[in-house]
Each structure stands twice: as structure tokens, then as C-alpha cells.
Amino acid sequence: MNAAEVIREATAVGIQIAIQGGDLLLEAAAPPPEAVIELLSRHKPGILNLLRSGRGGLAQAFAQLESRCPDHVDVERWQQCIRDGRHFLESWGPQAEALGWTAKDLFGLHKPPLRPHPSYRRLSRYDETGLCWLLQRRRVLALTETTAAIQGSGSSPIIYRKYNKPTLGPLGDSLEDFV
To answer: By CB neighbour count within 10 A (0-12 exposed, 13-18 middle, 19+ buried), where does 31 fall?
Structure first.
């Protein structure tokens, strides 16, 4: 088992991993299994190297997004995405990179048509919208290779999927409408 696999294993049981100095800082809602703690301990140097090396790509993409509001996005929505993105990267950045999340997964937007209608908004395409645009002050509670559990208004979290996001169309245009 390598460091990335150990991070996936820890994430699967609800452990959030961060770096504090030369140590791993672990947070979990419930006591984690002893076997996972043993794996984390055994692979600590590799995990530290992996988490430290992973900060560049997402941080660079975030800095680019932070530099200016994208075309066809309301300034208030962009500012909220910046606040949410900053919090996400502080809390989950290294783990997100280790799990394979990309800048597009987090900050992606629909590519505008050549001549967009005046009412066109890039955030209207949920299937092309990155996670941080959708948080809107909500916190990520858990992260896997393909999903993020987001704090909902009730007791159940909202699940964001990197892949197979439904497009919003009329009722009946998807088999999932009938499940």
C-alpha cells in the first residue's frame, strides 16, 4: 500500500488529514479504526511528502481565479466562491489533490458560447460547475475520490459528484427521474 492509498483509506472512514509542522493532524467525528491509524503511522513520511507536493496545482488555479471575476458570472457569486474556495483549500486542499481532485473539479465553469445571449450565465450549467461555486457558505464534511459531502440545511448532507452530474432538463429526460 502506498501513501495515496492510505489517504484514500483514511478518508473512507471519515478522517480529515492536514499537516501541522512535521506531523499529521487528524480529525474525525468518531474514533477511527486502529488499523487505519497504524497505516497512517507506518506511511507518515510518504503521506507528508505527498500532501506537501500536492499544494501547488490547486493553489495556483485558485490564485488565477482570485485575480479576476470570470466573464458571465455575477461579482457577488465570484466573491463567495473565493471565500468558499479559500476555506476549502485550507481545510481539504492537500487531501483533495491526493484524492485526484483537479482545478476543473473545484473551480470549473461552463465554456461560454462564441456569442452568448445577454442573459447567459456560466453557473446555469450545473454539470459543468466546480464544487466551490456550489458551496455558497456551506462546509465540506467529507471528501472521497469522486464525491464531496456538503453541509445541508437539515441533518442530511448534500452529495456533490465529480462525474455523472445530471443536467437539468424537463421531467422524464432521464431514467433517474423515475427511480
So the answer is: exposed
